[in-house]
Amino acid sequence: MEDDIEERRPKRQKRDSSYKAKAFEKFKQLKNGLRSKYEVEEIENVYETVDEKEYTKQVLARQDDDWIVDDDGNGYVEDGRDIFDDDLDKESIAVASTSKGKGVKRKKKVAENAGRGNLQFMISNMPTKKKEEEKLENDEALAELLQEIDSTPTTTPLRPKAIPSNFSPLSVKQAEKKYMNSLTSSVKRPTINLTKPVAKTPVAKKDVAPVVEKEEDRSVLEDLDEFEAEAITLAEETQETAQTESVVQTSEVIPETQLSEMQDIDGDCFTDDLDVSQLDEAEAKAEKESDPWENIEIEMMKEWAATSEFNEIENSVDLSNSDLPLTDSGGKKVFRFFWWDAFEDVAKQPGVVFLFGKTYHDKTKSYLSCCLAVRNIERRLFFLPRTTEKNSDKPVTAQDVYTEINESVMKNLHVKNFKSRPITKKYAFDTSIPAESDYVEVRYSAKDPPISKTAEGRTFSRVFGTESSYLEIFLLDRKIKGPCWLDVASPVPVTNPVSWCKLEINCNKVADVVIATDVKGRPPLVVTSINMRRAVNPKTSSNEIVMLSCVTNTCYSVDKQAPAQAFQKHFCVFTSPDHQVFPLDLHAAMKNYQATTLQKMHSEKALLNYFINQFSKLDSDLIVGHDLQGYQINVLAEKLVHHQITNFSKLGRVKRSILIKQKLERELFVGRLVCDVKISAKELIKCRSYDLDTLCQSVLKLKDGQRIDLEPEDVLKMFQTSSDILKLVTLTMQDTAFVLKIMYGLNIIPLALQITNIAGNVMSKTLMGGRSERNEFLLLHAFSEKGYIVPDKSYGKRDNLEKKSTASRKKPTYSGGLVLDPKVGFYDKLILLMDFNSLYPSIIQEYNICFTTMPPNLSEDNMVLPDKTLPPGILPTEIRVLVESRREVKKLMNNPDISSDLRMQYHIRQMALKLTANSMYGCLGFSNSRFFAKNLAALITHKGREILTNTKEVVQRMNYEVIYGDTDSLMINTNITDFEQVFQIGSKIKQEINKLYRQVELDIDGVFKYLLLLKKKKYAAVTLSKSKSGELKQEIEYKGLDIVRRDWSRLAAEAGKFILTQILSDQSSDDRVTNILTHLRKLREDLEAGAVPLSLLLVTKQLTKHPSLYADATSQPHVQVALRYNKESGGHFRAGDTVPYLICEDGTDKSATQRAYHIEELKNSQNLKIDVKYYLAQQIHPVVSRICEPIEELDVFQIAECLGVDTSNLKKARAVEDSGENITRPEIKFRNVDKFIFKCYSCKSENSVEGPFFNNLPVLERIR
């Protein structure tokens, strides 16, 4: 080694000639005492100060330098970085990579000025010595070690020890897909051609290890490898880790932490005998496979980069209220603005209604937020005079009523000023009150005390209007129906504003507000979508807000299609969870994050303050979110009160200073419209669940992996590294944008606006899903315009109903729609489905059913129809207007020359008209409704049952078989397979029925190719429909089956879907049975082996009220889980939420309903394991056996045997249900009986009889 060093040592250089002179001069000074014997030299800096680029350059140079002598890159490994270095940025690595070719063997660096005679130059150009290949059998020690390893049984292959990933979001879906692929590998795919294969499951090859598609083959998080996503997380997500062996064998990838340390030294590992071409091919293949996280990041950056130039949130310009923008209207100067929302604070400001909207400002050339305070709204009461004075025969006049009001009623209330007048009014909601009578109308200030609704006097018997709100009085008086342009005469500028709007004015007279009829179009809205990330404090189990995000569209038009650019401004603010510090390199990482404006705060309180200040600058008109009303607003309100945030009112538009949690939860965003997409989606679409993940898939058509769901536990873990924090920011901002796009996709705002304009209520209430209030206001306007006194709203009725038993609440107090007994079976001939168009609204019109036409002796025992000579009532008239308006709008919509924006407006309006008309019956039968009328609702359903029965009889007289009917629809067995001929049959039936009625109309709803009819309201079918090109399309439809209910596990549902796919397919009965039984055996094996992902075993059930309010929580597993999870894990399960749980074996002998646990509880416990017997016997077996019940070749015993379920408790024959028998079809009952075959006497040919009918004619008639 020493010889090598000497050979490598460079030639000695001659020292400087002045060296000795300097030394002698130093000795001379010391001798003469002119210099101290010890000299403290100036300390030089240990570190050299350079800029960032120079530093990066030097680091990369050190990494490339082979500084170990005679090592050839094969021994000591060091990457040349300082211990405090962060990972280098992508730009530096990219620059460095340009100087190094892929797969090129590294050479020793030589000084640029080294000559050819230099020893270093000579050595660097010497040919490298090929290293001798070591053989395993030559190393006895290594062989012994390997032998020991081989003798030890292992469940998983050996690989570098990985640092477990804190979060692998795609692991659950990867596990589900891989398992479902392997589950169907042994079953032959049935031939069923579906345009939307709902029950279709991918089939994997039998002996090939499951391989996930490209986008699912890697983990979502950057640099997280397949080993982490599959080997580690799948082991956690399945019942036993032993099942991960087959998955782990897919590839060898270095985990993230080791990869970051080794990515710069791969060049040192190249040897002369390495096949570089193979490496290049592997790298090229890896580059083709896209990382889902990179896809998310790339897609997000493409969309969000376009908004960077608009993303500066500027302070708005302050305007003077004295400079009001006025408009000429009929020669008068008026203040014109478009109102969107209204608010009243009866406790603090009675008689004042605040209208919030937009007005156009000429100076700024833009629409500004505005608040109009309509003041001096008076109470409006109607006193019904008695015929004679109480306890006297003296007739009562209007003057007598006025005298008692003045001297008695108002004097007792200390009301000094009031106005009164006699007026004639109608009343139609109580038979004890005259249909038309003289009343005394009284108006007085809202500041004075109210009159009791039960008040009566010597001269009057009833008082109406005591419970009416001032907002209702204002809207009915000015005939304002929903958001519109308003003209305000004599506007008064406000010097001391009470709102945060840009402009604020007062209107002191209600009559000064009129609807502007000469203006069209609506101002654009500023729409802000907000999203929250919370973490659960492990010590206190309390929620912490760690991140808040906003995306804003500054110019959203409700009259146009969804904008191409979803938003223009966005920001995100975050803080660290309690008792957790930020990573040291976070600040540097944030500088390189370009997706959005980021702000880091030191505490939750600072986060809230920053968010409120930034949010207020946006001046949003509409707030959008997911689960806002049910959860996020409550958490925000709680935190605002906890931290005593003084500027909390900037979230809304009314200035306030007192923090009251209960009030904040209701009025946090007062003055701004609030759209909760979860609430709106429940009315507009049908989903298994309405969580954000499901809505993204249903509405936005996102594929697996395009969105990642995070639990609070995952959020807490993602604050450990800077890269994970930025990934959390990206996911949070992505969800915020998804919520906004769901609102666009469902057309929630345009539809809500149309419904509000039709009903005449407040749009904020429409967005909260209040159907009852919409119908209520529609009827309020209708009856008020006709001179009727409307019934008072009864507050507190809901509370009284809550005290009643659950059974009494759920059972209807009158008979509902008719459901015919189904003829259970599997039908392979075409089934015709027919239904009545809007049956109940049509019945109301057909028989003129209304409050104003109701016979006085009407009761459930005496269903008397209104007199035919009566004029049309209010209710049928309103419905007729809605139906005719929709018909006209649909005609306009079919015009090919209109623009796409106009067509969209027509489509939304016809939807709004349909939804409103169909919900009119609901307000009559809803006990909490202001217009509840039990007798009218009972009469309508009575006529509905009668119409359905008559229709069934007509169809049977036409020699067609009715196999099922429900409320307003019929299923008819045509016994043919020709699609066109089925429609001809439907047209004949339609003509026969429709000529019996004027308003009731029967129509063809669809055709079923296959139908599996199980029982009432439960069936599965393959629907047939013809496209514009004439091609027949097929689609599977499920109705009421266990597989679409949430209280069954996904595994049971998927098993049911698979079996339905087998039944509803073109294959022989033997193949169906074989495939079904094979599938069931495989399910049993996988459950017992623990190979089923936990996510497929989750059972979900919805909470109908807060879990703490359940009296029988011990018998309801979802309630137990919700209570325990809320208490121990900081959960937030509440009324309306769906609770996921697993049934586990916990070592006790409790019943299955008492052994329910949250999935996190199972993961964190050593004593819990999945109860396999429960899932086989109580989940899969009931679902499968019910579906297979009509299949003659299968019975419950065969199914139980395949699943390993005890058959001793199974009954061979099932009792007939009390509600009506399920008739077994003769085709099923006598399937194995020989057909009747006879010879014709004349031609001697054989004839077979398939059934009693042929082409819907008796066989005997055909033979004759």
TrEMBL record:
Keywords: DNA replication, DNA-binding, DNA-directed DNA polymerase, Metal-binding, Nucleotidyltransferase, Nucleus, Transferase, Zinc, Zinc-finger
Catalyzed reaction equations: DNA(n) + a 2'-deoxyribonucleoside 5'-triphosphate = DNA(n+1) + diphosphate
Family statement drawn from the similarity comment of this UniProt entry: Belongs to the DNA polymerase type-B family.
SMART domains the UniProt entry points to: POLBc
Cellular compartments annotated: Nucleus
Domain of life: Eukaryota
Domain DNA-directed DNA polymerase family B multifunctional: 762-1191
SUPFAM superfamilies on file: DNA/RNA polymerases (SSF56672), Ribonuclease H-like (SSF53098)
NCBIfam families reported in the protein's UniProt record: pol2
UniProt enzyme class: transferase
E.C. number: 2.7.7.7
Gene Ontology biological process terms in this record: cellular response to stress; lagging strand elongation; leading strand elongation; mitotic DNA replication initiation
Organism for this UniProt entry: Tenebrio molitor (Yellow mealworm beetle)
Protein name: DNA polymerase
Domain DNA-directed DNA polymerase family B exonuclease per the UniProt entry, residue ranges: 462-694
